[in-house]
Fold each of these.
Amino acid sequence: MSHEIVTAPELAPPVGYAHAVVAGPGRLVHLGGQTALDANGEIVGEGLVEQLDQAAGNVLAVLRAAGGVPEDIVSIQIFVTDVAAYREQLPELGAVWQRRFGRHYPASGLFGVTRLFDDPALIELMAVAVVPEERGR
């Protein structure tokens, strides 16, 4: 059984996210916050687009280690240090999202924060996934 995307008819249609996701059965996996850290522990990428690409790759690496695939993500929180810049770059950010996650849009929220743990970090992703038992570790 896959996850069920729920759209509330009285709300504006969701674009790039789901109103709600009813998770199918499986192992609940909480993915720790991922920024644009590379394997050497350094933030890579000067801008949001490059940093999203690295952070998304990091999320997927952790998810794969837990036996999951992008479609197993049921929710994601996106923390950015500049919401206006995020909005301005939505087409480019959307292209990165689709390349990394496909057309899978979990329940999500975007949060503006004053800073992240590493000063050069512009974006951080935290996700929750439900990995089917037959694929889980």
Amino acid sequence: MNVPENLKYTKDHEWVRMEENEAYVGVTDFAQSELGDIVYVDINTVGQSLARESVFGSVEAVKTVSDLFLPLSATILEVNPLLNDKPELVNQDPYGEGWMAKISIENAVELSELLDAETYSNLISK
């Protein structure tokens, strides 16, 4: 499994990449492999301010639909427009072109509560 060192992770298999006060969020390589072929990403919370662990959207795979949980309290700034026509990017490049939402974080302290790459790797290897 690919677990980049420069990201933070949740136990719900989302990742966060910080860029100043904004961040990109997506699902991990482990999550996309468990879900299978992703056919639709539904995020209709742009502009909303949500608490950490709130559902901010869902991802639909061939066999299941799964909620997406916000890793940090934040405002949803943008949804990846590429996923409208190519939801399979989540499978192909979960940490790059398959990102799901751009957020503005509201409480930087919450970052320290996320998992680092080593801790997340240990979690998924059990």
Amino acid sequence: MNTPGLGALELARVRLRNPWLALPALIALSVTLALWLSPETNRQLFAGLNNLARGSTAPFWLFATLAGDTTVVLALLTAMHWRRPLAIRAVPLTLLIVALLTHIPKPLFNAPRPLAVLGVDAVAVLGPALTTQSFPSGHAATAFAGAALVTFAGASTLSATLALLAATLIAVSRCVVGAHWPIDVTMGAAFGWLGAWISVYGSGRAGPVTARWLHRVGLVIVALCWLGIVSQRIVLLKESGSKIKVSSAGQPSMG
């Protein structure tokens, strides 16, 4: 995947023209079509994946689904590749395109989630109990957009492979935790990969002034993501501290 002697921008242009790097999106679209033609297969696949939530690996899958949050994906991936300006420059367009591709279909289809269709007795839920706007999966779209972003923006073969693997685990986790059908995550994955391809393509051809502003906006977005993560951590620490105080105060006196 790497080409010696090429800079990040030239490498990105080479990768954008590489038909093999379209495979993740093509595979996701093919699986989406197959599941749409066979709803029973979609249900059976969900049941098999969701059953993992009842086993000892449940904490891992819950962690994986939390890692699919937009702030976490952007913060981690851009922290790993902050030296590649194109990766930061493409962040604003990626967010805009992926948001449009995922949030417009959600209310239009208003597809019921597994919990609403199968009931509480048949679905193991890890996290919030969601029932509406299932299609497509925003977490899967965000995860695959992040993986595509670093892949097309010139990341190493190892980094790109690890990012794609992580995105796949995050997408699968959405079925395991009971939030989405398999068809939701495959369509989300295709949208995310396609959205990142478009954004990197557009960002790489932006003029000097536009490129500078995109880079600045990207840095601001990444900084806000990190600020959000740190703030959330501080709140959790304060909440856990207050719970410890309440627990200690509530203990009966031994004297």
Amino acid sequence: MVLAPLFDHLRRSHGTRADDLMLRISGALGLAALVAAVLVPVVVPLFPFVLYTIWTNGPHSPVLPASYEPVLMLYGRLYPPALIGAVGTAATVFVEWINYHLYTRAADLRAVRKLQHGRLVVRLRRLFARRPFLTVWLCSITPLPYWVARVLAVLAQYSKRRHLAATALGRFPKLWFIAALGEPLGLSVRWLAAASVAALALAAGLWLVARVRRLLPALRPVDIARVVPTAPVAQPTSD
């Protein structure tokens, strides 16, 4: 069968659980975009925005820079900012639901260790202990590190519905506001498009560097002499 190699490729896992899941989501969005191109062509340009929102808020968000704002303002010039805020919020809540399960399954120890350092992190931990909903909301609507609220919610087994509701209530006004900034700031679509391409290239480069660093230990050559000791070479004997 012609499709047999394709199905076999889809059944295989690609990289880590997070990498494999993000790649599968990207593929599903690509297929949905093809269907939308036939049924509702006007929404097709929104698919790259949804995909980029998922990647910049997904499991790899700690290694990605603040490259989301130019894309957000670009789409705010092309579509109503309220629509972009709503679409971006829906995509963020979706990927945050995935993050919640990934952090629960993987128990990311590196993120847990980070929670033990830094004055700001300590203050957020104390606030979360008293007002968890308020903490998640503040981290989602302000520049405060959102990953702290995410990890705290997972460690405390905080209600998933409340966590996602606080995220949505914070993200929507923030995304709406940023998407609407392009016009009053006088930023042209051409300039925002160039800034978005540069931001995408930087984000892809940093993700690739982080990916290579994770693979380097497995790619380093093994010192065979340490694994298999060489036998002493027999010296020729004289008659």
